[in-house]
Structures are given as C-alpha cells and as structure tokens.
C-alpha cells in the first residue's frame, strides 16, 4: 500500500491589508485579478464551475489547509474554489480565513456587482491546465517527450529520495519541474528541479493530465541533490526543514457526504472520484494483534493530500475476538487511528454473520458492548472522529437471531434494545443486492420478493425504524452489480446477470439523490470504485471504473 508521510502545515495569522476587507475568520471580500476558473474543489483536477474576469468580487469563507486555494461565492451565486494567486490577496492574507474541508456547508450570501461569468470554453484561465476528467478509453496514447514533461507543482510538497524516503528539499507551490518517470507503486513521480536536483514527489501534487501520466516510463532510484539548499528557488523552504506534521481533521461531519470504497488511490481513481463529486474515501483494515494504531497513517495522509476525508472500517479476526485482552488491544488501535486523523471509523464489519464474528456467540448485545468500548476509546482520542456502527450483512437467511447468525433487522433492533444509540454517531448500513431502481418498493423477480433487503427504501425504513430515527444512517456499502464487460457471473451472484452498466450508473445516481434528499443519511459510500478482482466474489462487477477505464457512474453523478 502506498504511504504519504506528509501533509502541509499551516501557520494561521490574521493581517489587516489595504484593499481587502477582513470581517472575521470566515468572511472575507476579495477580487479576481486575472481571468480565472472557479472549480468544484481545491485543485486543478476538479471540474470547472465558472470562469470569471478581473474585478469580479468574491466573498470567501475558508481556505484549503495549504493556503493555495480558497472557497467563495461570486455575484451570480456560484460557490467554488479558486487559486489564491488569482485574487488580490496573498497566502499570508488568506491565512486569516479558517481552514475548511470541501464538504463543509457554505452559508454566506453572494456579493453584489462585478463582471458576468464567461463561458468555460473561452480563453485559458491563469491557473495551470489540467484535464477536467480522465480521458475516454478510446484516447490515443501520448508518448512522453524526450527528457520528460515540463510542468509545475500543484501545491507545496516535499521532494524525497524515494517514496516515503528522506526529504531532499521542499518545493513551493508552482515550482517549475520536469517529470521524467513514475514509480511502480503509482503514487509517486520522479521530478527534476531547474538546478538539477532529482527526487520523488506525490503524484497528486504535480500538474499532470491523465494522458501525460500514462505516457511516463516506470523508473526507480536516481535521486540526487547536487546543489545546496541555498541554490533552490528563493521561495522554497530550506532543505533541512523538519518533515511537516500530519493534520488531523478537527471539523465535525455534517450534512450529506458522498464517497467511495477504494482499492488504491491512484491519480486516475482520484480524478474519477473528484469528477463524480465524491469527498470521502473508504478503506478497510484487518486488525492483527500487535499492530500500532498509526499503521493507518499512510492511508490518512494519502486521502487528505488528495482532498478527501477518510472512513476506515476496522475489522479484527473472529477467531481471536474472545481471547483475553483482545478487545482492549482492538479499541486501543481504534483510538490511535482516530488520533492519527481518521475522519470516521466503522467498528467491525457485518457482525451478524459467522464470517466476521465467532460462530455460536453472535449477539447484538455482545456487539453493542464492543461498540461501547470502541466509542469511548475513539472519542477520548479525537472527539470529532465519526463513529459508525459496523453494518450488518443484509439477510433474511436466519429467520430471526441466534448465536449462529442474525437477520439484520433483528440484529439492529437488538442493538437498539442494548443501548447502542449511546455509542455511535451513525448507524451503519449495507445495501448491495438491488436489481431494481432505488425508487422501486416491490416487483423484485426473485423469491421472497417482498423482503425489505431487496429494496433501497426497504433498507432505509427498516434501519430508521429500529432506532426511531434517533441516529442518522451511514451507507458504508451501497452498490449495484453488473457483469457487463466481464464473463457471466458465478452462481452465487447470478441474480444480477441482467443488470446493465447503464442501469448501474442510473441507479447509483438516483440512490445518491434519494439519500441526500431524505435528510436521514450522513454518509453514502459507493461499493466500489476501482476493484479489479472478478472471480467467485466478482468485486469488479460492482466497480464504478470499468476495465476500459471509463466510469459511466461518475459521469451520471457529475451531472
């Protein structure tokens, strides 16, 4: 797995500057100084939502944690992110704003006046160009020019001897560089500075289109630092500066949030997700006794560096769960993960079946006790980490609840009776066996067609009722399986054989809309974004990104 061992450190300051009105931390007026794009997120990989001329006023409510991007609203009511450099404020002045995450609600009113927005197809904006979305599969391959690709850094970033290696120097935002190769792990590229220093930086911090990245040769080694730090560009930090510290999220989670379960966060995957409007990633960690809690730090840093919050589902080994001291070790791991910056933690996975919980001891009360201890440990370490109960497997197989297994409706009702509402911020839900539109409430062609787990609304209503609506829902898995582009589905999944790729895209888009509008859902994680395994468990059939590199579901969600 790839590790990003850094996140940018921001020193906040508030300055009174002529030409800029500083009302408070979270309300600042500025103006565009050059014709510039406004984007849906703080980075050139996000889609353009408008293009504005010099003199256009913008009311700002916050900044990205590196200071390079700020968020605001313009007179036509468009809300988006712009490069700080395209406004009449400096990075130091922008530091008077509060740091925000992309999914934080915007509450300020639009300013008056200013030039009208311009068509996006007009002349290039001041910021560095980048592809607005990953190229279609039919795009012709692009060969990297001899000597590499001339570009710039998309943010301040450490250049290292190798991925996660020693820091050679710090490169400031917009530093000219030449990219001459990509590391085999996909998360890093090798760059050359104007004075000849060579090293590795995180792919997400370099302005590269997907075509350019694909054209790069695979390289390893070759780092050097021939010039002393003083020879670096004047705006660069000294090369012997200590590694920057990771920034743990301190903003509580509110509103509706959308994300996807990922296998890896490559530049292509991140680009597709940004295009789809996703602001969260989910990854699942299998806890083994003795692992340090900061073992997930690489995942946290990687997600944050790419503009995402991260949900980590932590599941242990069923065979060890009842051993003395195991629960204490598990909850200590969760606490350390929260302290390390995990934005949300799902406590275990599908504890109602014997694949994930010891057979013979499955019990909503026993799980609630684990949840209680986990919640207390997590909140003591980081009060703003969202605690999500482990989503049960949706099933009617057991006909109730016993030590050998529980139907999920009986399991969540048992959790409620055991007081689980006191030990979670969100009730975890899995919905991944639908073969009808999420608007449907009947008509499933399979046997037992009236079972609630066959329908999106059946799951929504069943879980809401279990806790009387006292806790929001978090879909930690929601997906639609289609074999299109693959061989026929294996027998255990043949129920989805007739689902098309177009239906998958349409239904995911509709499910997100329904969840968002319901007022009941805090987080929806699509299962899945980029898995490629297709066998007895056809995970790739659920994937949004298909074998040809296309992502119809991303396009549907982006509209």
By secondary-structure content and strand pairing, the structural class works out as alpha/beta
What's the structural domain tally?
A: 3
Strand order of the largest sheet: 18-17-16-15-14-23-22-21
Distance between the termini: 32 Å
| Major sheet | 8 strands, parallel
Provide an overview of this structure.
- The protein is 20% helix and 20% strand.
- With 559 residues, it is of the alpha/beta class.
- It folds into three domains: 1-122, SH3 Domains (SH3 type barrels); 149-231, Roll (SH3 type barrels), CATH 2.30.30.40; 257-558, Glycosidases (TIM Barrel).
- Strands 18-17-16-15-14-23-22-21 form an eight-stranded parallel β-sheet.
- The longest helix has 18 residues, at 364-381.
- The two termini are 32 Å apart.
Concise overview:
By secondary structure, this protein is of the alpha/beta class. It has helices at residues 91-94, 210-215, 267-275, 297-305, 326-339, 364-381, 408-417, 456-466, 501-518, 539-542, 552-558, and strands at residues 21-24, 27-31, 36-39, 48-52, 57-63, 69-73, 79-83, 149-152, 157-160, 167-171, 176-182, 188-192, 198-202, 257-261, 280-286, 309-315, 344-347, 386-389, 401-402, 405-406, 427-431, 473-478, 521-526.
């Amino acid at each position: 797995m790839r590790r990003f061992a850094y996140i940018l450190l921001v020193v906040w300051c508030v300055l009174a500057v002529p030409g800029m009105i500083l009302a408070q931390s979270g309300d600042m007026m500025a103006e565009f100084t050059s014709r510039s794009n406004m984007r849906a997120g703080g980075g050139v990989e996000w889609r353009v939502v408008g293009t504005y001329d010099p003199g256009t006023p913008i009311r700002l409510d916050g900044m990205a944690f590196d200071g390079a991007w700020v968020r605001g609203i313009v007179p036509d009511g468009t809300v988006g992110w712009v490069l700080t450099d395209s406004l009449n404020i400096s990075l130091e002045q922008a530091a008077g704003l509060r740091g925000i995450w992309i999914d934080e609600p915007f509450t300020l009113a639009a300013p008056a006046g200013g030039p009208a927005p311009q068509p996006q197809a007009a002349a290039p904006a001041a910021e560095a160009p980048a592809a607005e979305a990953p190229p279609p599969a039919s795009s012709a391959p692009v060969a990297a020019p001899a000597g590499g690709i001339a570009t710039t850094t998309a943010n301040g970033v450490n250049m290292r001897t190798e991925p996660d290696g020693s820091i050679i120097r710090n490169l400031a935002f917009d530093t000219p560089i030449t990219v001459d190769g990509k590391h085999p792990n996909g998360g890093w590229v090798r760059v050359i500075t104007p004075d000849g220093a060579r090293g590795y930086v995180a792919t997400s911090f370099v302005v590269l289109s997907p075509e350019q990245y694909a054209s790069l040769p695979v390289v390893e080694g070759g780092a050097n630092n021939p010039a002393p730090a003083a020879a670096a560009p004047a705006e660069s930090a000294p090369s012997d500066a200590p590694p920057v510290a990771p920034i743990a999220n301190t903003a509580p989670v509110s509103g509706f949030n959308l994300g996807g379960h990922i296998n890896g966060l490559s530049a292509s995957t991140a680009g597709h997700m940004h295009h789809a409007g996703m602001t969260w990633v989910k990854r699942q960690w299998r806890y083994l006794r003795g692992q340090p809690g900061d073992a997930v730090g690489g995942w946290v840093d990687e997600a944050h560096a790419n503009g995402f919050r991260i949900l980590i589902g932590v599941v242990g080994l069923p065979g060890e769960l009842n051993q003395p001291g195991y629960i204490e070790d598990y909850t200590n791991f969760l606490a350390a993960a929260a302290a390390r910056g995990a934005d949300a933690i799902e406590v275990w996975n599908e504890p109602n079946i014997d694949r994930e919980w010891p057979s013979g001891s499955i019990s909503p009360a026993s799980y609630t006790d684990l949840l209680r201890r986990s919640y207390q440990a997590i909140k003591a370490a980081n009060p703003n980490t969202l605690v999500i109960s482990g989503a049960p497997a949706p099933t009617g197989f057991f006909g109730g609840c016993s030590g050998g297994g529980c139907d999920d409706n009986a399991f969540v009702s048992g959790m409620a009776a055991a007081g689980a509402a006191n030990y979670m911020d969100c009730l975890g839900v899995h919905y991944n066996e639908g073969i009808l539109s999420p608007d449907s409430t009947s008509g499933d062609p399979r046997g037992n067609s009236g079972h609630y787990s066959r329908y999106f609304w059946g799951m929504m209503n069943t879980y809401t009722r279990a806790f009387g609506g006292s806790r929001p829902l978090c879909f930690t898995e929601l997906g639609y399986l289609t074999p299109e582009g693959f061989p026929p589905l294996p027998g255990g999944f043949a129920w989805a054989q007739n689902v098309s790729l177009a239906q998958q895209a349409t239904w995911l888009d509709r499910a997100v809309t329904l969840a968002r509008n319901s007022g009941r859902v805090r987080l929806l994680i699509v299962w899945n974004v980029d898995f490629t395994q297709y066998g007895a468990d056809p995970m790739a059939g659920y994937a949004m990104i298909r074998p040809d590199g296309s992502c119809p579901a991303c396009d549907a969600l982006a509209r």
